Amino acid sequence: MPTVERRVVRLVKGEWKALTIGLLCTVGVAGVEFAIAKLIQYFVDLATHKDLAGLDRLMAVVFLVAACRYFLTSGQLYYMVLAGQNMSRKLRQQIFRHMQHLPLSFFQSKQSGALQSTITIDVNLVENSTKLARDLISEPVKVIGGLIYIFVLNWRLASVALLAMPFMLYVIIRRGRKIRRITQDLQDRYGSFVSVLEEALRGIRIIKAFGMEKYEIARFEEQNNAAFRTSMHVQKKIASIKPLVELLGTVGIAAVLWIGGRDVARGAMSGGELMGFLYVVHMMVTAASGVGQMNATRSQVLAAAERIYREVLDVVSDLTDKPDAPPLPPLVGHIEFRNVTFRYPDGTEALSDVSFTIQPGESIAVVGESGAGKSTMADLLLRFYDPIAGQVLIDGFDLRDVTQGSIRNQIGVVPQTTLLFSGSIRENIRYGKPDATEEEIDAAVSAAHLTRFVERREDGLDSALGGRADGLSGGEGQRVAIARALIRKPAILLLDEATSALDSVSERSVQEAVEENKNQRTVVLIAHRLSTAARADRVLVFHRGRLVEQGTHTELLALDGEYTRLYRAYSHGIVDMAVS
Ligand code: ADP
Q: H/E element holding 161?
C-alpha cells in the first residue's frame, strides 16, 4: 500500500493544471522580490548622489514592477485556491461514494459524528497540501535565489548572515514532529465532539422529555473544552516556531547591520547595496520561517489524510458482489433460510441454525420478544450481512451469488421508524422508483390509502415534508413509506411494525398493507403486536436466535408454547393499558 505521503502527492498531482499556473505566478512573485531589492539599492544610491533625473526614471520602473506584482499575486492566490478546493471537492466525493457502498456493519461500528468530521474537517486540512506544494517551490526559490544574490554582492557579509541558519533548521524539524502527534489527537477529539453534537440534535426529543438539557450541555462543554485545549496545544507549538525563527533571523540582521555598516563607512560597499542586501536577508528569514510553518502544515495534512484513509477509504467491504454475479431475475417471491447461523462481529449469536421456507404470495408474521433475532433475519434477507453458516435463498438463488442491487430492488421495505427525506411527498414516494410515471405514483398513493390525505393538502403531492416527516402524523408518514415500498411492485414486501403500542393509526396502515398485498406478493411482517400477527397466513416464532415454532395463529395457540406465552403477555399488556 502506498504511503500516506504518496497518496497525498497523487491527489495534489490531479490538480496539475491550476497548480502549474499558480506555481508559475508564485515563482514570478519571488522574482519580483529580487527586483524590489535592486530597486531599493538604486534608489538609495541615486539619492545619495543627488541624481534627481535618475530617480524620476526609476519611478517608471517601480510602477512597472508594482503592476507585475499585482497580476502575479492575484494569479497565484486564485489558482492555488482553485487547485485546493477542486482537490477537496473530489476527495469529499470519493469518500462519500465509498461510504455509500460500505456495508451496514461499518456504520454500526462507527460513530456517525466521527465520519462527519472526516468528510468535513479532515478534508479541509488535506486541502492545505496545495499550499504546501506552493511553498515547497516558492520558499526554496527565495532562499536559494537569496543566497546567490547576497554571496555575489558581498560574500563576507553573506557568511555572517548565514550563521543563524543551522539553529533555525533544528528548531523547525524538532517542533514539527511534535505537532504531527498532537494533530492526530486533535482530530480524534473533533470526532467525539461532532458525535456528541450529532447525538444531541438527533435525540432532542428524548433530551427534553427526560429534562436532560443540563447534562447534555455539560457533556458538550466537556468535549468542546477538550477540543479547545488540544487545539491550543497545537497552536502553541506552531506559534512558538515562527517567532523563534524570526528571533534568530533578527540576530542575523543585527550582525549584518553592524558589520555591513562598517563596510559602508570604509567605502567597501555602497549604502544602496547594504539596503538591498538587508531586504533580501529579511526575505530569506521570512521564507525560512515559512519552512517551519510548512513542516507544521505537512504534519497536519498527513495526520488528516491518514485518518481519511484509515477510517474510510481503506475500509474494504466484506459484502461485495462476486465478479461475475448475475442479477436476480424477476422474482416470484419464494424465500428459504437453510440452517442459517449468524453472529455479529462482537460475537453475539443472533441466529442459530434457523431453517424455514415461505411460499410465494404467503403472508408471514415474525414474532418474538425483543432481541430474539427478528431484525437480524430481515437484514440477512436484504443481504446486509452474510450468514456465518447456512444459506439464504430467494427463488432458489443463494443471495451471495447474485448482485446486491438486484436483491434489494425487488424487496419493498417499510421500516419501523419512518424516515422520510426532505422534499415533497411525490419525491419521497419516487425514492422507491426514480423513473416512476405519474400513473405509478397515483397507484402507489391509492394502494397506501394516501389519496384523501394528499387531497386535503393544499399542494397535494407537491407538499413539502421536513427531514423527519414534519407535519405528518406517525400513521401518515408510514403510509408514505408504504407507498414508497409499493411503487416498486416488489415481489417481497418486508414490513417492520412500529413498536409503540399506542400508535394504533400506524398499526392500521400496516394491517391494511398486509391484507391488501396478500396473495399478490410475499409479505414478511415483523410483528410487535400479536393482533397483527393473528391475521397473517402463518407465524414464525423466534426465541433467543432460534426459530422455535411456526404455524397459523390457531395452531400455535393450541401448542401452548412460546407463542402462547407471548400472546398472554401481550394480552395482559393490552388489559393493563386499558385499565390505567
Ligand atoms: P429483534 O429484532 O428480535 O429485537 P435483533 O435481531 O435486533 O432482535 O437482535 C438479535 C440479537 O443480536 C440480540 O441479542 C441483539 O442484542 C444482537 N444485536 C443486534 N444488532 C447487533 C449489532 N449491530 N451488534 C451486535 N449485536 C447485535
A: helix 155-162
C-alpha angle with apex 286: 281 to 287, nearest 5 degrees?
Answer: 95
Give the distance (Å) from ligand 1 centre to CA of residue 350.
6
* Pocket of ligand 1 contains residue 103 by CB under 6 Å: no
Average pLDDT (538-546) is 94
Ligand 1 neighbourhood includes 376 CB (under 6 angstroms): yes
What 3 state SS string does 297-314 have? HHHHHHHHHHHHHHHHHC
Q: Is the CB of 108 under 6 A from ligand 1?
A: yes
Q: What is the spatial distance between Cα 567 and Cα 436, in angstroms, rounded to a whole number?
A: 41
- For ligand 1, is residue 368 a contact (CB within 6 Å)? yes
- Regarding the beta carbon of 458 and ligand 1, being less than 6 Å apart is answered no
List residues bridging with 524 in a β-sheet: 364, 494
- 20's CB contacts (< 8 A; 6+ apart) are none
- Classify residue 489 as exposed, middle or buried by CB count within 10 Å of its CB (0-12, 13-18, 19+): middle
CA distances to 39, 52, 144, 529 from 141, in Å: 20, 34, 5, 75
- Are 87 and 8 in contact by the 8 Å Cβ rule? The answer is no
**Ligand 1 centroid from CA 373, angstroms:** 6
Query: By alpha-carbon position, which residue is closest to atom 24 of ligand 1?
Result: 344
Residue given cell 395452531 in the structure block: 555
The answer to whether residues 90 and 15 touch, using CB atoms and an 8 Å cutoff, is: no
Q: pLDDT tens digit string along 326-362?
A: 998 998 999 999 999 999 988 899 999 999 999 999 9
